[in-house]
Structures are given as C-alpha cells and as structure tokens.
Amino acid sequence: WSIQSTLPPQSTIVPIICASDKTHLTNFSGDKYLWLLYMTIGNIDKELRREKSSLAWIYIGLLPVSIDASSSELNAKQVWHTAVYHILAPLRCMGPLNLPCSDQQIRRCYLILNGWVADFPEQCTVAFIQNSWCPICTVSKDNMEQASPLRLCMDGL
C-alpha cells in the first residue's frame, strides 16, 4: 500500500499475479513434462478468482521441460528464467494504462508483479535456488530447526 500513496490522484495499482505448474504429459514416448504459465490480476475478488468457471486466470505460456541427464539443475532453471523473462517482457515495457474501473471512472493503472503462485518445486525454480533449500530464508537443509535470515536476491544458486 505504500506504493499506492505515491501515485497521482485517479491512479491505482493493478497487481499482476502469475502461477506456474510443471505438468506430466506422458510416459509412452519417454517422460514428457511441460511448464504451464498463467496470469491474473489482484484487483479481482479472491473468491471469484478461485472459481474455475470465472475465467479469471489466463494462459500466458507453455514451456517444454527437457529431461536430459547431462543438463544440470542450474541450467534448467536458467532456461526457465530466460523464457519467463521473455514472456513477461511486454509488462516491463508497458507504461501506465488508462482503464475504466467498476465505478465508471477512468483510472491511470500501474501494473506491478505482485506474486507468484506455485508449489514447492516451482517456488525453488522461481527463487532460483536448489530444490532442497528454503525459498524464504537461508537455512540449510541440515539445520531446518534453526532460525535463519531472510533470503536476498543474490542468495540464489
């Protein structure tokens, strides 16, 4: 909310929420997986956003997952981040938009990436950390019972 107070009058934030899920496709022609990428906005009521029939989530990308023994976890996550970087590129280039709100007023809307919905393996990929690490703090897998400081951007792999 601190961002909202810095905006000009008649402006608002449109929080962008993304989601990803690694999905198993088939065993018949080798293990095949895909990353499904979705997007919604935080201005939609959460009860409505959770209903499958509301169509509040839109599909924004489909990334093939390569299962290659010679490929490292680091390389796979780098490829994922590069692909998502390009998929979300239009959001970075987009300035404020003049959009109608539910009160029939035109508001200047600023888009911000607000969150990423994912299960634990996807959280590790989004945080660019090893799968056995905590995506929130710097605790090692051998010392999970100890308190640890929060993870910073440069604390990845």
Task: Tell me briefly what this model is.
The chain has helices at residues 46-50, 73-87, 89-93, 120-127; strands at 11-26, 32-41, 58-65, 97-100, 106-117. It is built from four helices and five strands.
User: What is the average of the pLDDT values?
Assistant: 81
Number of strands: 5
- Relative helix content: 10-25%
Lateral arrangement of strands in the main beta sheet? 3-2-1-5-4
Distance between the termini: 31 Å
Low-confidence stretches: none
Specify the number of helices: 4
Structural class estimated from helices and strands: alpha+beta
The largest β sheet comes out as: 5 strands, mixed
Shape: globular
Question: Percent of residues in beta strands?
Answer: 25-35%
Taking Cα atoms only, what radius of gyration do you get, to the nearest Å? 19 Å
Q: Give helix and strand order, one letter per element, not per position.
A: EEHEHHEEH
Structural summary, described in words:
By secondary structure, this protein is α+β, with helices and mostly antiparallel strands. Helices cover 21% and strands 32% of the residues. The chain has 4 helices and 5 strands; from the N terminus they run ββαβααββα. It has a 5-stranded mixed sheet with strand order 3-2-1-5-4. The radius of gyration is 19 Å and the shape is globular. The mean pLDDT is 81.
Mind sketching the topology for me?
Layout: E1 11-26, E2 32-41, H1 46-50, E3 58-65, H2 73-87, H3 89-93, E4 97-100, E5 106-117, H4 120-127
Parallel strand pairs: 1-5
Antiparallel strand pairs: 1-2, 2-3, 4-5
